[in-house]
Amino acid sequence: MTFDLQPALSGDLVGVRPLLATDFEALYQVASDPLIWAQHPATDRYERGVFQEFFAQSLSSGGALAVTSPAGHVIGSSRFHGYDPQRSEVEIGWTFLSRAYWGGQTNGQLKALMRDHAFGFVERIVFLVAPDNWRSQRALVKVGAVRAGTRLNGAGRDNFVFEMRRSTFSTQASGFLEHNHGAAAVPPPDLSNPRTRRVFPSAWPSATDVAR
Predict the structure, then answer these.
(1) Considering all CA atoms of the chain, what is the largest pairwise distance in Å, rounded to the nearest integer?
(2) Beta bridge partners of 10
(3) E strand or H helix at 90, and its extent?
(4) Is 143 strand, coil or helix?
(5) C or N: which end of the chain has fewer Cβ atoms within 10 Å?
(6) Total number of domains constituting the chain
(7) Tell me: the pLDDT tens digits for 36-76?
(8) Domain for residue 122, yes or no?
């Protein structure tokens, strides 16, 4: 069975579909907000020329998705990348959402839709996050990812690896699942874990992740 890297998925809060060349203006309207990129390595991605290059790379990646509101408006983007059937692994990254959708359950449902799709094909989902991007790290913990070492990114810099595993995630979540705006809720971070407390010493704000 072939992994569809650009599926059309929908929940009652958010949906995804393949990113199209005609989505540029709508997506740039979201991305032109400098605060979205404040903790991202590419802090200038809100500039039109910089974003044009990013958008072109997204289209050529073969895994880029437009994130849409229930009304069908483009509110962000995400991507499946690096599908490895031998390792049974895929990366989810390059995610950003309009700040109008931060602080609620939109990012959680987005990740749940992409997670459930990916777990139909792979055992492990990974997310790469810059070490100083606390917003992304907190957002990933909020949706059930756990820290799992480091890995070099495409620029040769160390990134933190967060992961979800199908075998442990379903078991871990089974005692916590509830219907949550059309997507399964995930258990909260384990604050009794010393490693978790070191990485996330403060409260758990709701925010989208901008991992790549």
Answers:
(1) 47
(2) 15
(3) strand 89-97
(4) coil
(5) N
(6) 1
(7) 999 888 999 999 999 999 999 999 999 999 999 999 999 99
(8) yes
Whose tokens are 């874990």? That residue is 193
Taking the C-alpha atoms of residue 3 and residue 122, their distance in angstroms, rounded to an integer, is 9
Which is more confidently placed, 17 or 177?
17
Which domain range does residue 130 map to? 9-199
For residue 99, tell me if it sits in a domain: yes
User: Quick one: average pLDDT of 151-168?
Assistant: 84
Residue pair 35/99 in contact by the 8 Å Cβ criterion = yes
Total Cβ atoms within 10 A of residue 166: 18
Task: Take residue 156 and report the two structure tokens written for it.
Answer: 């040769």
* Domain contains 113: yes
Strands 158-165, 146-152: pairing kind: antiparallel
DSSP symbol at 83: E
- Scanning 76-204, the segments in alpha helix (DSSP H) are 106-118, 134-142, 166-174, 194-199
How far apart (Å, rounded) are the C-alpha atoms in residues 175 and 64? 33
Strand boundaries in 168-207, DSSP class E: 179-180, 183-184
CA atoms within 13 A on the CB side of 53: 7
Q: CATH number, domain at 138?
A: 3.40.630.30
Q: List the one residue out of 129, 100, 113 whose CA is nearest residue 180.
A: 113
pTM above the 0.90 mark?
no
Query: What Cα–Cα distance (Å) separates residue 83 from each residue in 32, 61, 127, 129?
Result: 30, 12, 13, 18
What would the two tokens of residue 153 be?
Answer: 């990114």
Task: Provide the 10 A C-beta neighbour count for residue 58.
Answer: 22
